[in-house]
Amino acid sequence: MSEFWLISAPGDKENLQALERLNTVTSKSNLSYNTKFAIPDLKVGTLDSLVGLSDELGKLDTFAESLIKRMAQSVVEVMEDAKGKVQENLLANGGLKEKMKCLKIDLTSFVTHFEWDMAKYPAKQPLPSVVDTLAKQLAQIETDLKARTAAYSTLKATLDSLNQKAKANLFTRTLSDIVNKDDFVLDSEYLVTLLVIVPTQNYIQWQKTYESLSDMVVPRSTKLIFEDKEGGLFTVTLFRKVIDDFKARAKENKFTVREFYYDEKEITREREEMTRLLSAKKQQYQTSCVALKKGSSTFPDHKVKGPLLRWLKVNFSEAFIAWVHIKALRVFVESVLRYGLPVNFQAVLLQPQKKSSTKRLREVLNSVFKHLDEVAAASMLDAAMDIPGLQLNNQDYFPYVYFRIDLSLLD
């Protein structure tokens, strides 16, 4: 499962023994994989300040989770042509020991091997300062995310609009990818080439009658240049002075003259714009290979991500790492408020093995730690009875400190 339960219990002898019992039961029953979750000694301040900080951290936790989910979804959108490789771009790089910072660290490994980043979030700073640093970091990432995704969305919308025009029917679709200069009589004082839409079932009729629809139609001047499921686009050349008469007679025979003037500069501009937009969109995620030189050695096939994907990958990692630090802060603050001073608690990370076993795991936890809060433990047992029509408001409160970490970011 991609779900973790981050809990804590007091660090005295009785509760450390309770944790050992928990590890034994969950291991034997294969309920969860448990590891210690290291949180440094942080500056507590006053208990009053911790109460306000607890509320602030709750809001920041929700914001951070929402942000990384939005970033994960943005990676999916940018990599629409390579969705099978999305997960390899959702990593927590640089979040472990210095010697491992160059490695690709998956999210599960980062959480299970969490280490507090002393450089970014110094433990000696007051807790409000640490929280403020995290809040500002995430706010800046969100601001940049909005700007970058808005620019990409505009690019994508423009490209989608052009693609829709290219896929529309013959009456409305763009013709820049269909027509060629050779299809038209150009720069003639007397002659003009028209484009006529002919239903598929009327092809034979068109071939038999187009020359007689009006005087001064150039014989054998028609050519099919494009067709879709409903009909075809034909050229026909005639004298300019009979255009109106030809259009009227064509309409009577269920042929439609498409208003179009061949402008080579405009055609070229449309084609170049489509090519430019396609290239710009592809470059946002495309991985290219370059050779890097260091001294006399050359390292080929160094992968370089597109600018948007590269930004998303780096900042997703930063935001995710910040989010897990927020979880650690919440455990610390809640543990101090719950268990008191001096600070003495043990945080443990549980990874439930199966979704079907989470209920049993919760029962084991409540049983092992019921002595911490007999009233809450009794409420948990009552809640497990699922009494119809009864709404229990304390179902998220447990005798022990508990926070959930869900890594299903793309669900």
In N-to-C order, the SSE pattern is EHEHHHEHEEHEHEEHEHHE
Rounded Rg: 34 Å
The helical percent reads: 40-55%
Q: How many E-type strands?
A: 10
Count of helix runs: 10
Which of globular, elongated, flat, extended, rod-shaped describes the shape? Answer: elongated
Strand order of the largest sheet: 2-9-1-10
Mean pLDDT figure:
85
Structural class: alpha+beta
Major sheet: 4 strands, antiparallel
> Any low-confidence stretches, pLDDT <50, length ≥5?
95-100, 287-305, 384-394
The amount of beta strand, in percent, is 15-25%
N→C terminal distance? 13 Å
Give an overview of the whole structure.
By secondary structure, the protein is an alpha+beta fold. 45% of the residues lie in helices and 17% in strands. The protein contains ten helices and ten strands. It has helices at residues 13-28, 47-78, 107-112, 127-167, 203-209, 243-252, 264-283, 307-339, 358-368, 374-383, and strands at 3-10, 32-36, 191-199, 223-227, 231-239, 256-258, 288-294, 297-304, 345-352, 401-406. The strands form three sheets. Strands 2-9-1-10 form a four-stranded antiparallel beta sheet, with helices on both faces. It has a four-stranded antiparallel beta sheet with strand order 4-5-3-6. A hairpin with a 3-residue loop joins strand 4 and strand 5. The chain starts with a strand and ends in a 5-residue tail after the last strand. The model is unreliable at 95-100, 287-305 and 384-394 (pLDDT under 50).
